[in-house]
Amino acid sequence: MESNEFTRANVPAWRSARDWLAEPHGTVNLGAAIDRHAALRPDQVAIKVRGADGTVSKLSYRALCAETTRIAHALRVVGLRPGLKAYILLERSVEFPKLVLGALKAGGVAAPLFAAFGPDPIATRIGVGGEGVLVTTHALYRRKIAPIRARLPQLRAIVLVDAPEGAWSDGVFDLNLLIAESGEGPCSVDTDESAPALLHFTSGTTGTPKAVVHSHAIGVSLVATGREVLDLGGLDRFWCTADPGWVTGTAYGVLAPLLIGATLVIDTAPFDPQRWLDTLACMRVSVWYTTPTALRMIMRARPLGQPPLEATSLRVVASVGEPLNAEVVEWGRTMLGQRIRDTWWQTETGAIMIANTPAGASADGSMGRPVIGVRAHLVRRLPLGLIHVLDDHEAAEGELAFDAAWPAMFGAYLDQPARYRSQFSNGLYLTGDLARRDARGDYWYVGRVDDAIQSSGHLIGAYEVERVLMAHPAVAEAAAIGVPDDTCGEAVHAVVSLNAGYAASDALATELRGHARARLGAVMAPRHIEFSAELPHTRSGKIMRRQVRAQALGESIVDLSMLEEASLHEA
Ligand code: PRX
Predict the structure, then answer these.
(1) Atom 18 (ligand 1) nearest CA
(2) Is residue 443 domain-resident?
(3) Furthest-apart CA atoms within the chain: distance in Å
(4) Residue 480 located in a structural domain
(5) Whose alpha carbon is nearest atom 14 of ligand 1?
(6) Which atom of ligand 1 is nearest to the CA of 459?
(7) Ligand 1 centroid vs 445 CA: distance in angstroms?
(8) Residue 441: inside a domain, yes or no?
């Protein structure tokens, strides 16, 4: 189970992807694999960037190859070694893909961090991820890293992509100076396909974030699904709107399109419905990968009844991260002239697992069917880590699980082997998501088995929010829950009980929101704070978030068997 034995599986799409990625002597380095396009089609545009001011710049595969090699040299000079992390804290920019590829060429493990995180979540993640170097901008360094520098002994060096003129000291380096002084020759470490390549942080409901490890083998699934699901080819202009800090931002925002040889489109401006529509048109995007939240916001700005959008090059639109409701699919058909394809996957799966593919005619609102090579099942968890697999040929509802043998399957939760093992049973990987399979074999999203909050496509661990709230002197206990929200799917909502000597008030609620926002950043901080004299607990003493949620939503009946189940999972 833990050794990823997909290469033995007889799946032609995987074999051909692997043949493309592997060096003649059999090793696979995803950073170096992209250089093959530089040899075959050097002038092909690899990255096309639309700046916030509207200016467009282009980078050829030849230039990308040369620049990422120089970055690899530079990162090695400051101590990046095979297996060490290259933490990359950047907004949407041309630097992000260059740094990911440069780090991979150097044999490092690219570990993107979300630039909207506050200092606390960043320090926690680097603490979990361990030794390495950090690459960021001058502004992000000043705001997020300088205040916690003393808490980051794991960092061998900090590298700024835009260091201002002048000498830098104290372990902070100027990337451009490093490049100017580093070697010129080839720099690509021969990595076995099982060598770690990516580290992504994902949240559970309890404990610290998990660091999900992917090896270079992830590229096989990314190429296969890029071709099959997104229909990507060498002539496409592909825009993935995911933030670089999340798994989609690296997997499909960098690797899949560049491994396939397409042109990657980047818009550096923040989300704005009209801006994004302009980008689709002026960058002549042919394949667009985005989220239901973004689509719903654009739908609100441009409702049915208005003229269809002028994105004439668009031929594939796909979405990920949250349920794609049928209304959005209908809007897309009319306004974009496309059936928006839903795709399901998660950080651990590394690549798309279930999708509406061009070949399959899945019902609107369903996630579709397993992609080629992937085998899905629905299961019920039994006590003692056992599972019952429901009949694969029947309509059913249960926890979504997969045969644990696809190329992009994660290899570990860093330093947490028991937690990793607990995700598997009977040779299946258990996703933690509940799904329904209909009589036609389409899968429908039902929800999370646990209580993680799903906001704007981001999975937010309740405990991380609660921990910060409880660090405030007024707060005795806190429960963070997701409440339905038309725009972002779920909004973060916190219910807190107070310590003696504090009284509930609007002023205190405002203060707590500010406290959380300063430490967690806007995405994770609760939008609403509610006070409660006491929070409900399970028998083992853990907060029953489902009960809290039912109360917050005014639902009086709570299914007790669900609560028992919840406490089983938490135990
Ligand atoms: O609950 C599922 C939801 O997002 C979770 C994975 O989150 P994360 O690891 O952050 O990765 C996000 C990007 C791949 C899943 O367990 N999810 C993902 N895709 C869908 C979805 N929920 C409903 N429909 C989807 N298409």
Answers:
(1) 321
(2) no
(3) 71
(4) yes
(5) 346
(6) 10
(7) 10
(8) no
**3-class secondary-structure state, position 241:** coil
Quick one: tokens of 124?
């926690």
Same domain for 512 and 388, yes or no, is no
Q: What's the 293 CA to ligand 1 centre distance in angstroms? A: 13
Residues 310 and 393 in one domain: yes
Q: Is the same domain home to 382 and 515?
A: no
Same domain as 422, residue 343: yes
Q: How many domains does the chain have?
A: 2
What is the secondary structure of 307-366 as a DSSP string?
PPP--TT--EEEEESS---HHHHHHHHHHTSS-PEEEE--TTT-S--EE--SS--PPTTS
Ligand 1, pocket-test mutation among 329, 344, 400, 430, most atoms within 8 A of CB: 344
Domain final residue, candidates 436, 466, 494: 436
Q: Which amino acid, one-letter code, is at 14?
A: W
Q: Whose CA is nearest to atom 5 of ligand 1?
A: 346
DSSP states along 283-297: TT-SEEEE-HHHHHH
Closest CA to 302 of 339, 323, 329, 277: 277
- Going by alpha carbons, the residue nearest to atom 24 of ligand 1 is 323
State which ligand 1 atom lies nearest to the alpha carbon of 343.
Answer: 26
Atom of ligand 1 nearest to the CA of 319: 26
Instruction: Show the ligand 1 pocket: residues with CB < 6 angstroms.
Output: 202, 247-248, 320-323, 342-347, 367, 431, 433, 445, 448, 459
The alpha carbon of 320 and the centre of ligand 1 are apart by a number of angstroms equal to: 7
Same domain, 65 and 119: yes
Q: What is the pLDDT of residues 440-463, one digit of tens each?
A: 999 998 777 777 788 887 778 787
Instruction: For residue 149, give its domain range.
Output: 3-436
Domain ends where: 405, 436, 467?
436
Q: Whose CA is nearest to atom 11 of ligand 1?
A: 346
Q: Whose CA is nearest to atom 6 of ligand 1?
A: 346
CA nearest ligand 1 atom 7, residue: 346
Is there a single domain that holds both residue 424 and residue 476? no
| pLDDT (tens digit per residue) in 358-398 | 766 788 889 999 999 999 999 998 888 899 999 999 999 89
- Say yes or no: 498 and 362 in one domain: no
CB 101 within 8 A of CB 68: yes
Residue 237's DSSP bridge partners are 263
**What's 137's domain CATH number?**
3.40.50.12780
In a domain? residue 18: yes
**Tokens 């644990």 found at:** 404
Report the distance separating Cα 376 and Cα 483, nearest Å: 29
Taking alpha carbons only, the member of 4, 30, 392 closest to residue 190 is 30
Instruction: List the CATH number of the domain containing 507.
Output: 3.30.300.30
Same domain, 138 and 229: yes
Tens-digit pLDDT profile for the chain (571 aa)? 334 455 556 799 999 999 999 998 889 999 999 999 999 999 999 999 999 999 999 999 999 999 999 999 999 999 999 999 999 999 999 999 999 999 999 999 999 999 988 999 999 999 999 999 999 999 999 999 999 999 999 999 999 999 987 656 788 999 999 999 887 787 788 899 999 999 999 876 556 789 999 999 999 999 999 999 999 999 999 999 999 999 999 999 999 999 999 999 999 998 899 999 999 999 999 999 999 888 988 988 888 889 888 878 999 999 998 888 888 899 999 999 999 999 999 999 999 999 998 766 788 889 999 999 999 999 998 888 899 999 999 999 899 999 999 999 999 999 999 999 999 999 999 999 889 999 999 999 877 777 778 888 777 878 778 888 988 999 988 999 999 998 888 999 999 999 889 999 999 999 999 999 999 998 889 999 999 998 887 655 667 888 898 888 887 544 433 333 333 232 2
Look up residue 451 and give its amino acid.
D
CA of 486 to the centre of ligand 1 (A): 18
Distance 66 CA to ligand 1 centre (A): 35
